Amino acid sequence: LWYMKSEHETRLRFDDYLETAMIEAVPAEAAGGAVAAGFKGSEGIFYSVENRGNVWSAGNPVALADFDAIISRLDKQGSIEENVIFLDRQFGFDIDDMLAAQNSYGAGGTSYGVFSNSEDMALNLGFSGFRRGSYDFYKTSWKYLNDASTRGAVAVNNIDGILIPAGTSTVYDQILGTNIRRPFLHVRYRASQADDRRYKNWITGTAGGAYTSEVDEMVVNWLSERCLVTQAANNFVLFQN
């Protein structure tokens, strides 16, 4: 029972490492000796957008003029009309306040709708998105940016949110020799006809039902070889404080 429980918890941690690598991974630094040791690193979404995309570092955009500036930048890139902003709690509040201020009755009190919406009902002060010009922006709170055990504890150069375009784009696949359509953000795995390294799991030893060696133990192995593809990063926007 002990090793089965430990195996389950280790598997959960391994899954967390895989997801975190797709977000936080950076190329290995030669100065630190990682390259000399044979490590190459990878490119997570934050690194890719910071180096190949757009970075907004003027504090959270809290006015329509700020989003107009973002739209002006997107117009010069791919002009993807539908975008999703994954953001932390404060950034979400800032957008809610910005949209609420557009109500002409916002300064004098709360305006109620006409479809059976009375003062006895709970008032919804949140917004799921808005449209500006020909662009649709949807927002969703990202727990990863709020949790104090992850990005929520970072005080300097922290990530407040990231804008990700919706839909697909066309790229040329050198292996297939043709144009293919792929999501702007997707994960690729290394595989061949004989070996699929998307998520491998095997047990060695002589305990726990495994009989692969003379060692009286059970060793559980996990292996995955994957990378995050941030396609057309010039259509992404990284919000940093």
What does the secondary structure layout of this molecule look like, with pairings?
Layout (H helix, E strand, L loop, with lengths): L1 H23 L20 H8 L1 E3 L7 H12 L6 E6 L1 H12 L28 E4 L2 E7 L1 H4 L12 E7 L2 E6 L4 E6 L1 E5 L10 E6 L12 E6 L2 E5 L6 E4 L1
Parallel strand pairs: 1-12, 2-4
Antiparallel strand pairs: 2-5, 3-4, 5-12, 6-7, 8-11, 9-10
Key traits:
single chain; 241 residues; alpha+beta; six-stranded mixed beta sheet; two-stranded antiparallel ribbon; 24% helix; 27% strand; globular
Structure description:
Helix content is 24%, strand content 27%. The chain has 5 helices and 12 strands. The strands form 4 sheets. Strands 1-12-5-2-4-3 form a 6-stranded mixed beta sheet, sandwiched between helices. A two-stranded antiparallel sheet has the order 6-7. Strands 8-11 form a two-stranded antiparallel sheet. The N and C termini lie far apart (47 Å).
